[in-house]
Amino acid sequence: MKNNILTLIMALAATTTVNAQSGTNSPYSQYGLGILADQSQGFNRGMNGLAIGLRQSNQVNMLNPASYSSVDSLTMIFDVGLSGQVTNFKEGNRKINANNADFEYAVAAFRVMPKMGVSLGIVPFSNVGYNYSSTTKVGNSTTTSTENHSGSGGVHQVYLGVGWNILGGLSLGVNGSYLWGSYDRTLTISSSDTYVNTVTKTYDVSIHSYKVDLGMQYSLDLNKKDNVTIGATYSLGHNLNADPSLTTTNTNSQTGVSTTNTQTVYDALSIPDIIAVGAVWNHDRKYTFGIDYSLQKWGKLDYPQLNLTTGNYELVSGLLSDKHKITAGGEWIPNWQSRKIYNRIHYRLGASYSTPYFKVNGQDGPKEISISAGFGIPITNSWNHGSVLNISGQWVKASAKDLITENTFRINIGLTFNERWFNKWKVK
Q: Are β-strands 287-296 and 303-306 bridged in parallel, bridged antiparallel, or unpaired?
């Protein structure tokens, strides 16, 4: 058992050398900390990320650490996921497509003692990735000015968590995480007039901090076939001790000589308090339905911005907004005890609605509507708690008045290895 756990830890550590963020080409990733990852796993992505009240003994649900207490005592669960997506961007009559494919996450869970489970893994936290330009005429002249915008990077999260069934149907849990990553965002302003200097502004930051998530679940059997689980999570908001900087480079277009000025805002980035609640109803291990609601309190946080009046790079309030999200999803298994594979397939559906956490030129960013569908295919029979291949498709629409509209179709593939590492064999 010790050798197996050591191998697992080494495998998870190796994944930190891989890009652990889901890719994006969204120009909206230039705001805040970028596009926030949903952090769900393969099994609940088909339910559009439903998680707070979910308790499944053969899956890892890192979004509520209290769920780790439900992990089967004989098995080691290891789950890895990939995604690919196509996004259509529309602004006025102009449309353009972009593609991404990325490694998403690697998580694991196992039982360490009666009523207590442990999980560890690596997941994305936020993503930055965009590249676009715009050209305008200067007054009534033939001179044009071009702005090139580009950015890349993101924040990763590696966590270790524990869940404990403390009394009856009540379970508590906690995830302790390490956040790390960096991003840079560049704006270059050039002119067709060779007498006008080229100005480049580069915003960059490196992040190394922590994150703490608390979870609770209460599971109640209504009768022999019906069960209801309610859950709640709380994520501690705090300062990231990060020092974003703005480097302005002014290049003489004729001589090529450059002057550079760097401004730094110390301790300027934070993550908010996050509260989430959810409930899940399960009937006879055949039907599952649940609903989640979460509130991310970004609105009270300041964010660094260049003051165009004074020329100072400084903290500004009112650039971020509270983010609300509601998710509903469900699963159907025709007959989990059947030996026929088509009867044991998990069929899943889900939908979400969320508000933005950032503002664009003083107005709220795009709201998101998303719908997902997927299925889980058992790779072996149900009697040995075998592995599951989880496949889902998701459509996401992000839109706001007078802003770019994004339509994304995403394919998620997750493979859950569920092996009886801790089974004791008896020889007669």
A: unpaired
- Is-contact 345 374, C-beta < 8 A? no
What pLDDT does 422 receive?
A: 52
pLDDT given for residue 3 in this prediction: 46
pLDDT profile of the chain (428 residues), mean per 10 = 46 46 79 94 94 93 96 86 92 88 90 93 94 84 87 95 95 97 93 84 96 98 95 97 95 84 95 98 95 97 93 94 97 87 92 96 94 91 69 95 94 86 52
The pTM is what?
A: 0.89
pLDDT of residue 13: 47
